[in-house]
C-alpha cells in the first residue's frame, strides 16, 4: 500500500510539472489533479499493455519511440474522461505532457528507489598485474 501511494504521489507531481510547463493542459482544483493522476495510472496499468501489444510492430519499427505516442493518447484520453475538470487541448500538448511526465516520473522513481530499474556506477580497480609506464 505504501509503494502504491508513493507511486501515485510521484505520478501526481509529474502531472503537476507537465501542467505548469505545457500550455494546453489544465486542471481546476488540486483534487482534480489527484484524480487525473489516478485515472492516468489506471489507464497505464490496464489499457497501455493492450495498446503496446496491438502495435508491437510499430514499437519495434520505431525502436520504442511509438510508446511516446501511446502515452500521449492515454493522457489525451484522461483529459477526455475528466473534462472539464482536467483538460488536454489536443495531441501535441498531450505528447509533450506525456514526455515530461515520463521523464519526471523516471527521475523521481530513481531518487526515491521505487523504480524497478536500477542504475549503478562502479569503478574498476586496476588489476594487480597491470603494468603502467610513467614517462
Can you put this structure into words, describing what you see?
This protein is mostly helical and 135 residues long. The protein contains five helices and two strands, in the order H-E-H-H-H-E-H. The chain has helices spanning 2-21, 30-54, 56-61, 66-82, 91-112, and strands at residues 25-27, 86-88. A two-stranded antiparallel sheet has the order 1-2. Helix 1 (2-21) packs across helix 5 (91-112), helix 2 crosses helix 4 (66-82) and helix 4 (66-82) crosses helix 5. The termini are far apart. The model has no long low-confidence stretch (mean pLDDT 90).
Descriptive keywords:
two-stranded antiparallel ribbon; 67% helix
How much helix is in the residues? 55-70%
Mean pLDDT value: 90
Element-level helix/strand string: HEHHHEH
- Low-pLDDT stretches: none
